[in-house]
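Ticket #4471: structure output looks truncated?

Reporter: J.K.
Steps to reproduce: submitted the chain below (211 residues) through the standard prediction queue, then opened the result file.
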Amino acid sequence: MKCLLLVDLQNGFCPGGNLPVPGGDEVIDVANRLTKDGGYDLVVASQDWHPEGHGSFASSHPGRQPFEMGELAGKPQVLWPDHCVEESEDAAFHPVLDTSRIDYVQRKGMDRNVDSYSAFRDNDHRATTGLADFLQARGVTTLDVCGLATDYCVSASAIDAVNMLPGVTVRYIEDASRGIAPETVAAAEAAMKAAGVEIVRTAELLEEVGR
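Returned output as attached by the reporter:
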């Protein structure tokens, strides 16, 4: 059972959004190609879905500015611009993304007191989203992960998948992902490799299924 996890392909993380990833919209067509021709049995998408006044927002910390370091749930926290507030256009999936091919949406970041980069659990690792149980119940044996942003939510999701889905092959699709900065992307890719995540490209995956 092969599954594709699309991480946070939302307006907020694409150009014009409140927290844009450089070139974030460039992966949408790649994601659509993968969902159509990648031979996946299951397609899952995560969606950042914050309440107003979330604790990761700089605006929730008087006197602090976006991208400063703060603390949340006892851990260091980048203080972000307000983004992906539930029910907002910023939180919606990118309009070019073919959502008809998505079988399941996992929302995250809904607890205002802790951030959730990973699609699998909160940053403090105290609460899980239930995605691991969902994938295990469906017998997933290979999980391919891509999306936005490599150096935060994509890498956190891929590493958690290795830790929370024993026996599952986890692969990060490099060209179907974009990150914030080259140095943090490089660090994230090194961390994924060290955790046992394989790094692949779309052409390899399409070749596997004769496309």
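Triage note (M.O.): checked the attachment and the full token line is present. The longest strand covers residues 42-48.
Status: closed, working as intended.
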